[in-house]
Design the sequence.
């Protein structure tokens, strides 16, 4: 069994399984902040760590894996959440975690095992390598999806993403002057709190009321 970190109302009807980014744990300040804001909007969040990240808590430094290597870990967590709650969750994550979720979303949405997909800062390409796109599966995506992206994200800016072929099932929510963590520059007149609030509101509006398994 994977350790789950639950936040948000215990009686919430909507559940979001939220995976961490490649380099930060499930209880990083960013993840804590986002989970709290989602909880304020009536969403119960289940966070977890992939095995490589959990091992770092024991002092075992494992390299970041390829997304394809952890798909089964995410699938197992979804089964665990459904067994514990009796509800069908939405899935998503921050950066790497959202990418992993996007790779299994269609198979699980088709079988009725997930309701929707949420990606917070999607890594459309590796840093500094705009030609290595991670969008092939996004062009055919059928799961209702929300991507919240900073306008100047170094792994997929607004200008770059405008040229990508993406499924009509994907809604893009652009955060003003946001970077990969959705943080704007001070001179922009926007704040990180503003962008995180807007992100949480967009996620709350996107998630449907689930059915029971």
Sequence:
């Amino acid at each position: 069994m994977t350790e789950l970190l639950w936040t948000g109302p215990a009686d919430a009807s909507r559940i979001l399984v939220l995976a961490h980014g490649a380099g930060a744990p499930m209880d990083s300040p960013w993840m804590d902040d986002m989970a709290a804001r989602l909880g304020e909007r009536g969403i119960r969040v289940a966070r977890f760590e992939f095995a490589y990240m959990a091992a770092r808590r024991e002092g075992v430094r494992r390299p970041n894996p390829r997304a394809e290597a952890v798909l089964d870990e995410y699938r197992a967590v979804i089964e665990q959440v459904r067994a514990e709650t009796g509800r069908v969750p939405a899935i998503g994550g921050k950066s790497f975690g959202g990418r992993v979720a996007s790779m299994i979303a269609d198979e699980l949405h088709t079988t009725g095992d997930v309701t929707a997909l949420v990606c917070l800062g999607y890594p459309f390409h590796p840093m500094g390598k705009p030609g290595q796109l991670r969008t092939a599966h996004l062009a055919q995506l059928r799961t209702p999806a929300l991507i919240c992206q900073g306008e100047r994200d170094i792994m997929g800016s607004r200008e770059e993403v405008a040229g990508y072929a993406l499924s009509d099932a994907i809604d893009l929510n652009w955060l003003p002057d946001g970077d990969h963590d959705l943080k704007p520059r001070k001179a922009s007149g926007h704040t990180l709190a503003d962008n995180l609030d807007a992100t949480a509101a967009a996620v709350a509006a996107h998630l449907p009321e689930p059915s029971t398994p």
Observations:
- The chain has a mean pLDDT of 96.
- Helices lie at 29-40, 51-56, 71-85, 96-110, 158-161, 192-206.
